[in-house]
Amino acid sequence: MNTVTAEQLFQALQAMPMEERVRFFSLLAINAFRDQHAYQNLQDQQVFWHLDNDEFTAQEAADYLEVSIGTFRRYVYDGRIKPCSAPGITQLFATRNLKAFKHATHDVKLTLDGGKGKGKPN
Asked: Which of 69, 59, 64 is CA-nearest to residue 44?
């Protein structure tokens, strides 16, 4: 089996005419990550694996969930997310709980839009 290395692929891409590069990246964007939920799970595991037993501040948690700090504060106020500890005036949030919340809300979005990932009913 003839395997192409990342460097060889990059060199081949550089040698392509511009129109073919555009076509290649369009095909890649359309086809490479069809199962976005599986891709998101993989990405979370690759990026945040070392934080499984860690705690985030409110801003870090909002960044992780990809929401504004205002939205995150509403989640906390509504009881959808609970702090795991509060040393002084700073609330800390367990990364395991945030990960579960993120995946649960992602699953709801997929259900609402039939798997399109937009989160709004049709």
From this structure: 64
pTM: 0.51
Angle among Cα 18, 22, 24 to the nearest 5 degrees reads: 115
Helix (H, G, I), strand (E, B) or coil at 113: coil
**Which residues are CB-contacts of 71 (< 8 A; sequence separation ≥ 6)?**
62
Alpha-carbon span 48 to 67, nearest angstrom? 17
Confidence at 120, pLDDT banded by 50, 70, 90 = very low
Q: How confident is the model at residue 73 (pLDDT cuts 50, 70, 90)?
A: very high
CB 93 within 8 A of CB 83: yes
Tokens of 111: 């259900």
Annotation: CATH topology of 50-122: Multidrug-efflux Transporter Regulator; Chain: A; Domain 2 (1.10.1660)
Which neighbouring-strand residues pair with 5? none
Those residues with Cβ within 8 angstroms of residue 118's Cβ, 6 or more apart along the chain or in another chain: 109
